[in-house]
TrEMBL record:
Protein name: Ribosomal RNA methyltransferase FtsJ domain-containing protein
Pfam families: FtsJ
Top-level taxon: Bacteria
UniProt-listed PANTHER family: RIBOSOMAL RNA LARGE SUBUNIT METHYLTRANSFERASE M, RIBOSOMAL RNA METHYLTRANSFERASE FTSJ DOMAIN-CONTAINING PROTEIN
Domain Ribosomal RNA methyltransferase FtsJ: 139-229
């Protein structure tokens, strides 16, 4: 066990459809072995016959990997993509076999593994891990929103879409949504960042979620977001109420895990959200999440 890389030895055969299903893992799969060179990587990966490969640094500090780490990862990726019959794609489709190559420190062997891509898996974990907080972002929530949109696969274009965000101050997530063309209604008694407030598509509703009344927001919204620092059970009471009225196509909720009690209640809560969510529900800890997980659902 090393920081951010955990391996288990298994006695006997794993079933062909084995999935770890860990919500706190960015990626998990079955090991194909270690490799010192790119040619050895290709040998280890050959039985998987994967069209999609992800090359990832072994450890990603909270504020992102250093430029030299990415330079080494990029160098290996370039060599791998130049291999005869080398992989061509980064974005898998459900059912695709994906090879992951975990690149450690200089001189350390690489770990090669594979998994079958399923809905709810990260499309390209490397793309999420490469995101860095821009200096103009009002808060780290910018990263959380960028990563959630990437995960949902709706990152490019939110033009014409309406978003209601509960717990919007100071505005990192709102800025991410606004810069993709969305109209954002931000609900928070806290102060919003001046750049977000000045945006023509931003509407600040300076009230608590419980005081939001019909008429303050449109009759229907496309995306319902919550980043309120309240117990997940309370967040879900608000979100369910708004979802039944505003019929969103999607949800992006951060659920704060501030105690062991909250953690223990979470599976049951997620189960109940599945009853009213607009589409399939997926939960995971994104790289930018601290003591919290992100729940997404999209029609
Ligand atoms: C983690 S911060 C939100 C960060 C924000 N999403 C961003 O992008 O910068 C949590 C916010 O939830 C707000 N909050 C807590 N309870 C709330 C409630 N009942 N209604 C609305 N906002 C609430 C707090 O005022 C706080 O600004």
């Amino acid at each position: 066990m090393r920081p951010q890389l955990i391996t288990w030895k298994v006695q006997g055969e794993l079933p062909g459809n084995f999935r770890l299903g860990a919500q706190f893992a960015q990626v998990s799969g079955v090991s194909l072995g270690m490799a010192k060179t790119v040619l050895e990587v290709a040998e280890r990966a050959a039985p998987a016959q994967a069209a999609v490969w992800h090359i990832l640094p072994r450890e990603v500090p909270e504020d992102g990997s250093a430029a030299e780490t990415w330079a080494r990862v990029d160098g290996i990726e370039t060599e791998i993509r130049a291999l005869p019959d080398g992989p061509q794609r980064c974005q898998p489709k459900p059912g695709d076999t994906v090879v992951s190559v975990i690149v450690g420190a200089e001189g350390e062997p690489m770990l090669v593994g594979c998994h079958r891509h399923q809905p709810g898996d990260l499309g390209d974990p490397a793309a999420l891990l490469r995101l860095a907080l821009p200096p103009e972002a009002p808060s780290r929530a910018w990263m959380k929103m960028e990563q959630a949109l990437d995960w949902l696969g709706i990152q490019e274009d939110l033009k014409g879409r309406t978003v209601l965000e509960l717990g919007s101050a100071p505005g990192g997530a709102s800025l991410s949504l606004l810069s993709r063309g969305a109209t954002v209604y931000g609900v928070d008694t806290g102060a919003m960042d001046a750049r977000v407030l000045a945006h023509p598509s931003f509407h600040h509703l300076k009230v608590a979620a419980g005081d939001l009344r019909p008429g303050m927001v449109p009759d229907q919204v496309d995306l319902l977001v919550s980043d309120m620092n309240l117990e997940p059970r309370v967040v879900c009471q608000y979100v369910e109420k708004f979802a039944s009225r505003l019929r969103p196509l999607g949800l992006i909720l951060t659920l704060k895990i501030n105690s062991a009690k909250v953690e223990a209640e979470l599976p049951d809560l997620i189960h109940r959200i599945r009853d009213w969510a607009p589409g399939p529900v997926y939960v995971r800890q994104l790289p930018a999440n601290r003591q919290e997980v992100t729940l997404v659902s999209w029609q």
